[in-house]
């Protein structure tokens, strides 16, 4: 199956996994409440329908999701490749771009100064902190040596990493290459209009090329 193109694999997930499970639920063969996790197929649409994903109410009408936090652009005709797949593109609104770090909280005490706690943020394949939390509260000290998700904030001339939540589902932080890629999207953001305008221009160009090719044949 991994040698098949995406459209074939996509349909196989529905036909050979999702539908049989639904029938098994109905027949009482599988007890959903006893399962440690659920299974669902991520929804995909043709690239020319991307604009619909941003329309109010569209996602809620066709999926269980009610707001968009990112888009995956998946090649249609390529086979499955395990590991890093350079032909798959992911986009998130800049304000929702985050990095998973391993937090290390340190105590800093200088003569004549109050005790200060700092939070160094570590990623894989880097022997020094990738960044530092803007602030560390007493409550956050429970996350020392834990994997946490952070977002980059800019507020009144101050910028840096802000704690969002603990990632209990992860045992390792993001790799350096991933962290650098996310940081790059934060520094040089691509917004919704940029995405939609590029897609519109691309589709328009393709249609013009196809029309020209058709006219040349006739």
From TrEMBL:
Signal peptide: none
Keyword Cell division among UniProt keywords: no
Reactions catalysed, as given in the entry: a 5'-end diphospho-ribonucleoside in mRNA + GTP + H(+) = a 5'-end (5'-triphosphoguanosine)-ribonucleoside in mRNA + diphosphate
Compartments it resides in: Nucleus
Domain mRNA capping enzyme adenylation: residue ranges: 2-92
Keyword Transferase: yes
Record InterPro entries: mRNA_cap_enzyme_adenylation, mRNA_cap_enzyme_C, mRNA_Capping_Enz/RNA_Phosphat, NA-bd_OB-fold
Record EC number: 2.7.7.50
One Gene Ontology term, aspect cellular component: nucleus
GO molecular function: ATP binding; GTP binding; mRNA guanylyltransferase activity
Keyword terms of this UniProt record: GTP-binding, mRNA capping, mRNA processing, Nucleotide-binding, Nucleotidyltransferase, Nucleus, Transferase
Residue span(s) of domain mRNA capping enzyme C-terminal: 98-195
Pfam families: mRNA_cap_C, mRNA_cap_enzyme
SUPFAM superfamilies cross-referenced by the UniProt entry: DNA ligase/mRNA capping enzyme, catalytic domain, Nucleic acid-binding proteins
Biological-process GO terms, alphabetical: 7-methylguanosine mRNA capping
Full protein name: mRNA guanylyltransferase
């Amino acid at each position: 199956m991994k040698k098949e193109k995406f459209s074939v694999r996509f349909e196989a997930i529905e036909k050979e996994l999702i539908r049989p499970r639904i029938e098994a639920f109905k027949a009482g063969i599988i007890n959903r409440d006893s399962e440690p996790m659920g299974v669902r197929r991520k929804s995909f649409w043709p690239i020319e329908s991307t604009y619909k994903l941003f329309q109010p109410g569209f996602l809620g009408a066709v999926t269980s999701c009610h707001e968009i936090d990112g888009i995956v652009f998946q090649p249609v005709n390529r086979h499955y490749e395990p590991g890093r797949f350079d032909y798959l593109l992911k986009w998130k609104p800049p304000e929702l771009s985050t990095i998973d770090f391993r937090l290390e909280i340190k105590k800093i005490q200088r003569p004549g100064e109050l005790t200060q706690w700092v939070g160094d943020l570590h990623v894989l394949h880097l022997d020094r902190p990738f960044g530092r939390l803007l602030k560390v509260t007493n409550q956050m000290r429970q996350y020392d040596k834990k994997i946490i998700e952070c977002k980059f904030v800019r507020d009144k001339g101050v910028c840096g990493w802000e704690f969002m939540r603990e990632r209990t589902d992860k045992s390792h932080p993001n790799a350096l290459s991933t962290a650098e890629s996310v940081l790059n999207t934060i520094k040089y953001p691509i917004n919704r209009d940029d995405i939609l305008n590029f897609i519109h221009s691309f589709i328009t160009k393709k249609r013009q090329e196809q029309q020209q090719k058709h006219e040349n044949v006739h």
